[in-house]
Amino acid sequence: MKVLQKLLVLTAVSLTAVIGQQQTIKFATIAPEGSSWLNVMREYDAAVRKESGGRVGFRIYHSGAQGDERSVLRRIRLGQLDAGGFAGVGMGEIAPKVRILDAPFLARSYEESDYLYQQFDDEFRQAFEEGGFVLLGWAEVGFVHVFTNVPITKPDDLKRIKMWAWEGDPVADAIFRTLGVSPIPVAFPDVMTSLQTGLVDAFYAPPYAAVALQWHTRAKFVVDVPLAISAGAVLMSKRAFDRLSPDLQEILLRNGTIYMSKLTQISRKDNREAFQQLTKAGLRVQKVDGNDVAYYVDVGRRARRSLVGRLYNEEFLVRVERALEEFRNNRPANR
Fold first, then answer.
1. What is the pLDDT of residue 331?
2. SS3 of residue 66 by DSSP
3. How far apart, in Å, do the first and last CA atoms of the chain sit?
4. 290 band by pLDDT with thresholds 50, 70 and 90
5. What tens digit of pLDDT does each residue of 162-194 get?
6. Of the candidates 285, 261, 286, 289, which has an alpha carbon nearest to the alpha carbon of residue 274?
7. How distant is the alpha carbon of residue 73 from its chain centre?
8. Nearest Cα to 201, choosing from 188, 184, 187?
9. pLDDT for residue 5 is more than 60
10. Residue by residue, what is the 3-state secondary structure of 265-293?
11. Where are the alpha helices (DSSP H) in the chain?
12. What's the Rg (C-alpha) of the chain?
């Protein structure tokens, strides 16, 4: 009888330990310390820990401690990490069609960007799942501007710069080559060194990222018309996600939507303020002539088509472009 009682007690203790066991999600990002990206990620972590009673939480590796996005992705697939914060390059390695969100001169306002996420969210989530990942939340990075050390007064001026391109990024390669620029591929962690040594003398980034990473200190000019809007997301290995109980999965997904939506709004504010900070730091804003804007829009269209068969098919591109065109035509201001 005493043996049976001991077995029952041990079983109860074991079950309690399993039920209350903390699930640690090892998460990596290139976002630096002190950035809004990292601050909101920590808020997200605190929220899921509180709501789950400490049963799930993130261990956050920041500032590129686990390498660039490709390195993080490789570590996740090896089971060394569970999740990561990704921009276009990383997302494209998982679900190529999602790179349409970064397509040059496609979405030209926050409203248009929001509309694309809304209309194609289910399709993008399915693409991530097919790639072995679960979307915890979209985290927009912001409108991307070109920074240079020489003035860009007309499109042909771009041909005399040494433009950085994120190594392995087909979207950046497509847009610059369509513009007649031969980009110099450099891994993300090596951009600052490349700017300092003169290997490259131009780069593209959202204003807040340029300031947070201190890249803006190596530029004299910023083009006012954005090249594209950079998408971002927090993605978790489906293998790791499926190990969690349904209630923990729900807590992660719901709070992911809440906090990444918050991050998107903060990022938009940060980018507006950072653009002002750039001018205060002495960078000169290069205005783009109306005719040149039309030229860049056409370049974007051609660059998007050059990616058909590489990132997405023609049918999907047409659907996205038509949806955006309908949105523009139906906006109250156009009625």
1. 80
2. coil
3. 83
4. confident
5. 999 999 999 999 999 999 999 999 999 899 999
6. 285
7. 14
8. 184
9. no
10. HHHHHHHHHHHHHHHHCCCEEECCCHHHH
11. 2-20, 36-51, 69-77, 88-94, 110-130, 170-178, 191-197, 207-212, 238-242, 246-280, 290-306, 314-330
12. 22
Return the structure tokens found at 257: 């939507």
Mean pLDDT, the chain, whole residue set: 92
| Cα dihedral 93, 97, 98, 104 in deg (nearest 10) | 100
| C-alpha–C-alpha distance, residues 164 and 187, integer Å | 9
CB 211 within 8 A of CB 148: no
User: Encoding tokens for residue 48?
Assistant: 């899921």
Task: Look at residue 21 in the predicted model and tell me its pLDDT.
Answer: 59
1 falls in which pLDDT band (50, 70, 90)? very low
Residue 240: C-alpha distances to residues 84, 130, 133, 195, 235 (Å):
12, 15, 9, 38, 11
The HSE-up count of residue 54 (CA atoms within 13 Å, CB side) is: 3
- For the stretch 137-158, pLDDT in tens is 999 999 999 999 999 988 999 9
Q: pLDDT tens digit string along 201-239?
A: 999 999 999 999 999 999 999 999 999 999 999 999 999
* Pair of tokens at residue 37: 């990206």
Closest listed residue to residue 155, CA positions, set 136, 169, 176, 139: 176
Are residues 224 and 285 in contact, defined by beta-carbon separation less than 8 angstroms?
yes
**For residue 156, what are its two tokens?**
């042909």
Phi/psi-derived region of residue 67, left when phi > 0, alpha when psi is between -120 and 50, beta in every other case: left
Whether residue 233 contacts residue 91, with contact meaning beta carbons closer than 8 Å, is answered with yes
By CB atoms closer than 10 A (0-12, 13-18, 19+), residue 308 is middle
| Three-state secondary structure string covering 217-268 | HHCCEEECCCCEEECCEEEEEHHHHHCCCHHHHHHHHHHHHHHHHHHHHHHH
Is 56 strand, coil or helix? Answer: strand
Element (H, E) at 108: none
- Whole-number Å distance between alpha carbons of 307 and 314: 9
